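Changelog note: in this version the structure field was regenerated for every chain. One regenerated record is shown below for reference.
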Amino acid sequence: MFNYILRRILIMIPTLIGVTIITFAIINLAPGSPIEQKIQQIKFGGGGHGESGGGSKSSAVSEEVIAALKKQYGFDKPIHIRYWIWLKNISRLDFGESFTYEEPVLNVIASKFPVSLQFGVISLIMSYTVCVLLGVAKAVKHGSTFDHITSFILAVFYSIPDFMLAILLIVYFAGGRFFHWFPIGELYSDNYYDLSFWGKVGDRIYHFVLPLICYMIGSFTVLTMLMKNSLLDEIKKDYIRTARAKGLSEKTVYLKHALRNALIPIVTGIGGFLAVFFTGALLLESIFQLDGIGLLSYKSILQRDYNVIMGIMFLESVVLLIGNLLSDLAYVVVDPRIDFE
């Protein structure tokens, strides 16, 4: 197993380099560089000083100013040289400085990261816990009234886009038009630091309810039905019939023999779930006024903040690669018969 993990880690290095090369090339070749935006800001700032009369002068930026801007932002070098410099800096965990916020990229990402991290971790734990339990219950009671009712509810949830659900929840429960039961914006109240420990926990839950429902809604139905169908497939196999023939109870057959093998398809998605820590959810963060990674990524793309974009893409790629490795390791935990050597 150690050799397998070492091989996977070594493979991550060229994969990361390939991802960063493609990303760096795309964002640098796209129109509207930070230099062009800075020039537009200078022109706009000087636009009000034109001569009065029939033909006002358009603000012009001298070649010296443009050359100084290029040198300041590092655009006075060819793209391959800029990438090589960026790669050397990354090896020292130096992601550069944000053009927009004018502070280190890691500080900018770290300031927005708690939002995505908290919702990502909580939605991961709750989704897998609830979906596994519900999927097992549906498989055990397959074809019953409980199974049909929960399937209908899950189908309804699956058909509602998360951003539309967010709007409906705000309209009905967050002071939109009917009830004002839950707040929107921020992750805690103004008097949060004056509360006791359990008061802080309750305040966090109070603020998390509506966004968390929307974060989980997309994967909830898929995970539950995957768990149910995987378990139903397992209980049709010969080893389950043998266990029943030995006189084992249905509880033992389901939970001890079938469940462990049925969990193998479920653990596949664990690595993908880690992506939410860095990708965030742009629409949900906008609707609920949460300043997270999704909103930061969107603003950075609009503002052509190359260093922030590259920093987010690099960290997200690392998280996804580590997540894929964790998924493979989870296979071994669920089924020790699996050997990657």
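Spot check on this record: The CA atoms of residues 149 and 155 lie 10 Å apart. Residues 12-40+59-94 form one domain.
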